[in-house]
Write a structure and sequence with these properties.
Length: about 190
Amino acid sequence: MDRIMKSITFFTDGGAQNKDVKYGAWAFVIRTKDKEIKKHVLNNHNLTVYKGYIHRKMGELQGVGSHGTSEVTTNNKMELTSIQQACEVAETVRKQFGQSVKITIVTDSMYCINALSKWAYKWKANNWQRPPSKYGNTEPLKNIDIIQPLFEVVNNNDIVLCHVKGHSGNYSNELCDMICSREISKMYL
């Protein structure tokens, strides 16, 4: 008899608005049908239950996850931070349940997908630096302070990265987007 694999999916999003100060926010929500994993993450992490997020086409969106804000940031940094924060929970799930759990992180950021699953291999081989341009200068890598450790966490924990098109009606992605927007709006009050 085949054993059913446990799984957990993290939907992530981040964003920043450029007004006088570039405020930003990140969020992730967790989806799992496994009661043991659900109990583990709820008992071992400071998570928030999100309710009352009204989507004009989908009605009320709900979920469990986490969020945070930053005062001087970029959109890409917030997207990466949402994945980083989800990975902190994912690592504890991997430690508790082992390799039998499929861990997936879903993001609407192609920058994050490419940085962590394509470009980072080249950067790592080049000692986490850009190769010199044809003019001999090397431009520092942006967000390497997050990408380098995140690349190791994703690979060491066998985490699958998936892309979802933003603002396309994906329930969990829309919820993360609404959480980020609400948190950024609060910062301008």
